[in-house]
Amino acid sequence: MTRTRRTTAVLAAVTALLTGASTAPALAQSETAATSCYGGAKSLTYHYSADAVEFGTYTTSSRCADINIKLSSSATGFLDACIVFVDHTSLCNHDDTYSTFGPQWATVATDVKDGTHFRLRVHAYDTDAQVVPFQLAY
Predict the structure, then answer these.
(1) Residues 69 and 120 sit within 8 Å (Cβ to Cβ)
(2) How far from chain centre, in Å, is Cα 5?
(3) What does pTM read for this prediction?
(4) Cα distance between residue 137 and residue 105, in whole Å
(5) Among 66, 59, 54, 52, which residue's Cα sits nearest to residue 118?
(6) Could you give the CA distance from residue 101 to residue 111 in angstroms, rounded to a whole number?
(7) From the CB of residue 119, how many other CB atoms can be counted at a distance below 10 Å?
(8) 44, 61, 78, 83: which is deepest, by most CB within 10 A?
(9) How far is the C-alpha of 89 from the C-alpha of 86, rounded, in Å?
(10) How far apart, in whole angstroms, are the C-alpha atoms of residue 118 and residue 93?
(11) How far apart are alpha carbons 84 and 104 in whole angstroms?
C-alpha cells in the first residue's frame, strides 16, 4: 500500500514537471506573438459624432490572427466598435452589433484570414468620448 502511494506521488510530481516544462515555451511564444501584433498597431483618433465613424479600409496580415483595439490610457469614455468586412458586406460583424471597448487590448474580430479587407466602424459609448485616441492592431 505504501509503495503504491509513493509511486502515485512520484508520477504526479513528474507529470507536473513535464506539464510545466511543456507549457512554458508555448506561453513565451504567445507573448512574443502578441508583442509582434501590438507592436505594429496603427494609432488613430476618434472625434465625437452622432453618427458612426469609419476608419480604413485596411488589410489583415500574418502579423495578427485577430483585429484588436485599445483605447489610450488618456482617453475619457469608451468606444463602441465593430468590423465591416467590405468585400462581403456593409454590415458589422457579430450580427451587425457593436461591442464596447476601453483601455485594455481587446478583440473586435477573431481568426481573420490574412489579406482580408475591413473597416473599423466606431461610435461613442456616451458623450464623454469627445476625442479618443486609440490603437488598432491587425
Answers:
(1) yes
(2) 46
(3) 0.72
(4) 9
(5) 59
(6) 19
(7) 17
(8) 83
(9) 5
(10) 10
(11) 22
Q: How many CA atoms lie within 13 A of 30 on its CB side?
A: 4
Other CB atoms closer than 10 Å to residue 38's CB: what's the count? 15
Q: What are the pLDDT digits (tens) for 78-134?
A: 999 999 999 999 999 999 999 999 999 999 999 999 999 999 999 999 888 899 999
83's grid cell: 468590423
Angle at 34 between CA 17 and CA 73, to 5 degrees: 120
Measured between alpha carbons, how far is 80 from 44 in angstroms, rounded to an integer?
15
Who contacts 3 (Cβ-Cβ below 8 Å, separation ≥6)?
none
Query: What's 62's DSSP letter?
Result: T
Q: Is 58 exposed, middle or buried (0-12, 13-18, 19+ CB in 10 A)?
A: middle
pLDDT in tens, 24-58: 444 454 555 556 899 889 999 999 999 999 999 99
Beta bridge partners of 131: 47
User: Terminal CA-to-CA distance of the chain, rounded, Å?
Assistant: 58
